[in-house]
Amino acid sequence: MTFQPGNELDQEEVQERVDEAIDANDVVLFMKGNRLMPQCGYSQKALDLIGQYVSEFETMDVLPALPEYRAALESHSGWETIPQTYVDGEFVGGSDVLAELDERGELEATLTDD
Fold this sequence. Notes:
Glutaredoxin; four-stranded mixed sheet; 46% helix; 5 helices
């Protein structure tokens, strides 16, 4: 199988995937790449921070349709930047916000509702 550049997902399909992932998961990270192969340092950092406190969470790779994912996520968060973390349907932030919460000792409670 050869990689074919181009997007097979339209904006409506991506919006549906984003909406469903946010609604169906306690914690979801929209990132560049996946758990096994993060494709940017910020995504790796967010993955590591979440993984300290939560073993089961959803990740979604935005790279197959990056412009569409940016638009869909912006409709939820007001942010275009990736990665983005949602907990119980609410936007928490990117890797910088997760790191700040962790430094203040608030990340575990944010992720686990404790």
